[in-house]
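Table S2 (continued). Query chain:
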Amino acid sequence: MEMDKKELRIASIKRLKNLSSAKKQRTEEILTTQLLSSSAWQNAEKIGITIAQGFEWATKPIIEAGWEQQKSICVPKCFPDQKKLVFYELESFNHLVVAHYSLLEPNPELCKAVNKDSMDLMIVPGILFDRNGFRIGFGGGYYDRFLKDYSGKSISLCSKEQLVDNIPRQPFDLPVSTVVTEDEIFEAFNRYN
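Corresponding output:
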């Protein structure tokens, strides 16, 4: 019997947490280099990205690279009662506060909210991915809701250990358009087909 999303999520998180710090750091460096060399990154001016926590691939070096390249970096604030993300332009890590689920989020008093369609690239987090761009995230459905009417390009960072043949999916699940691994950058399923 096929594992369901919850079981796959738990197993994958366990694998990611068990990576040695050296292996994790090396993978992060390769994924960051791959992302920064992608046309999606190079052509983007305003980029949405989360502040990674714990076992997730580090995003601070990506954010710093964006600032150095004069790109506008936008990070999400969660609104759990509405299961909604609102992105804010981040100009300093000092403008982050600890919020829901111990996540680092932008302080709305110090950051300006941005319209989702003003962001031309969204870096979407996830735990498992397939070659069609479908993903298993953290289970809240925040990004599926966000991507539903998002018109920009979506991309995810995925180690080889996170790439599987097929992700079980629901009708509301939406794929990302591009997946970056250590070895390749591939265009995934076009969600508008």
